[in-house]
Amino acid sequence: MARDPNHDILFEPIQIGPKTLKNRFYQVPHCIGAGSEKPGTQAANRAMKAEGGWGACCTEYCSIHPESDDTHRVSARLWDEGDVINLRHMNDSLHKHGALGGVEMWYGGGHAPNMESRAVPIGPGSSASEFEYLTFSHEADEDDIKWLISHYVEAAKRAVQAGFDIVYVYGAHSYLPLQFLSPFYNKRTDEYGGSLENRARFWLQCLEGVKNAIGDDAALATRFAIDTLYGPDGVEVGDDGLKFVEMVDNQGLLDLWDINIGDIAEWGEDAGPSRFYKAGHQRNWTDEATKIAKVPVVGVGRETSPDDMAARIREGRLDIIGAARPSISDPFLPNKINEGRVEDIRECIGCNVCISRWEIGGPPMICTQNATANEEYRRGWHPEIFSKTSSEDSVLVVGAGPAGMECARVLGERGYDVHIREAESEIGGRVRKIVKYPGLSEWGRLTTYRQLQLDKLKNVEVHTGVGKMTADDVINYGAEKVVIATGSHWATDGTNSITHDPTPGIDASLPYIATPEQVLMGGKEIGDKVVVLEMDGYFTGISIAEYLRDQGKEVTIVTGLGGIAPYTHFTLEAPNLHRMMHEKGIHAMTSHWVEKVEKGKITLFNLYRDGYKRHAGPKTGELPRDAGTHVEELSFDSLVVATGRIANNSLYRELRARKDEWGANDIGGIYQAGDCFAPRLLADAIFDGHRIAREFETSNPQYAQPWIRERQVWGMETYPKITDRETQG
Ligand code: SF4
Fold first, then answer.
1. Is 685 near ligand 1, meaning CB less than 6 Å away?
2. What are phi and psi of 139, to 5 degrees?
3. Spatial separation of the C-alpha atoms in residues 470 and 477, rounded to whole Å
4. Is the pTM of this model over 0.70?
5. Is residue 175 annotated as a catalytic residue, yes or no?
6. Whose CA is nearest to atom 6 of ligand 1?
7. Which is catalytic among the residues 26, 152, 168, 175?
């Protein structure tokens, strides 16, 4: 199909200093867990986006010196020749597709924990970080400031050696340049503190030093949080924000503004989860910068609609469409717009599971929508290209939830004849319920994308409303291969991860006890006073509590965990979820679990009620500490139990027990995908379905094939060598 002429403007080149951006699609810096230590992953992930049409792709934040080390989180680094070699591979890979490479030079100041380097970070003051406890900076004197600026300059020279086209001085998310600029951090009384002119001095000197270092070899960009959202205590767009833009532009050093909002302690105000922020939520701030900026402005806001993107550029509200999450979810978003295939865009759902991996530190980024994210190098997966099978096997997929939909889609793309059969009237499985929770409707994109792709595949038949398949149904179906993707359900008996047993008195067949599914599907009448008992730790407990509170119920969440929905700290939803609880009056009781449940009453105990000193020696048959007996009681009209999910694996188990019948019925293999194998994140279920389909011809696709691991191999060269040190002492 031809491109919609309304979108032509998105494909117009634009000059960024000495470099030409071929179109208006720009992958802003974002983390993937590769840094400089996994050059294959780094290069392949970014290059896939370049192949998909992004005009520029940046690294994640890239440390310029060991004084700025974010371990346990993974940043890129430009510390030495080894980093230059590794990141040059990324740029070489981008350039093959005509994309520019950007590096976000980062010095964390007081937010860098330096757990690997053990160096001391330097900042405008000597204050404790509000983001990273037990982390302090050393207050810079004039020599330190020159030393800091020299770090930026030397790293910029290495960036040019590595082939970067765009070199950033990163001042968003409360990192060093913004720490100097913002009165929230900067309490100095010398020429670097006080007036805006003084507070801006460090940033301007960095820009000047870097510009002199890179000349016309690369464009100079800066990422600026134009409003830290602290009100007058920080940087406000209507005050220092716009004034700083004018100040920098008047120096004529900068080639590109990368504008966002927020800080680091609550950077979900920037990377807004869809639960709270819809696409374009930063427009009212970014547009202000574009109005006065003398160089192009790139901005973000999880934009996935090409009509909205084109309108923003046409109306002069933004010059370049920046994206992190939309580019993770669909690396081929620009090409799909270019080819007039906008319906094929795999839109980001704003769940922030990608971000959760950075926040946890260490593991590679994953994506709920795009199972191939970060698998480009280590598994060789391409999001749009699937190896065609030579097998003539037909495949039955039982269950059209997240894993089943994805498995059928990929098998279909690979050329298999697939029947996917869903007991319920629509596909989607668990997602059909999740979208009923307040704020989570965009998660339905997991289904709409797959529904459309399945509809396009002529070799895939989707059967809905067929009821639950029995083992006889499967065995007699006539398929040569079977994938069971029957999902999971919430335990009806209170089985949980604290006791690993059912909970006395919990039985969801009783009228006053309900699982989340029973509540959402309208199967139970819920009384006015509700206790939500949860041990999920993610979105379910808090979501069902809000759902019921919005109906006017009095709601208390009880959890054995130390906080409410702790995983949402990693997805950046936690601060506003806690504000929501406070504002809506949802009560909470943490670190408690259940002794027993009776009609109208739940008896709870504090998980730490037992003696804190262990007994001196063992006594068989007794706890090795003084057993506590204190309990507390809560009354309720209805108890909602989200204590644990149980795999729906009875069909597989029955089939497995009849394995000797498979051969006679020409069944070559039966596998399990997703929650029926083990209930996990939606991202994991979708990945599972995808992986099994990719590896379907292996001897047993139930078990994953090995992937490429990137690490130092003993006996190979290291950078730097120990002999590069000035002292061997
Ligand atoms: Fe979007 Fe979620 Fe994928 Fe992140 S993990 S890119 S938020 S769909």
1. no
2. -70, 125
3. 10
4. yes
5. yes
6. 325
7. 175
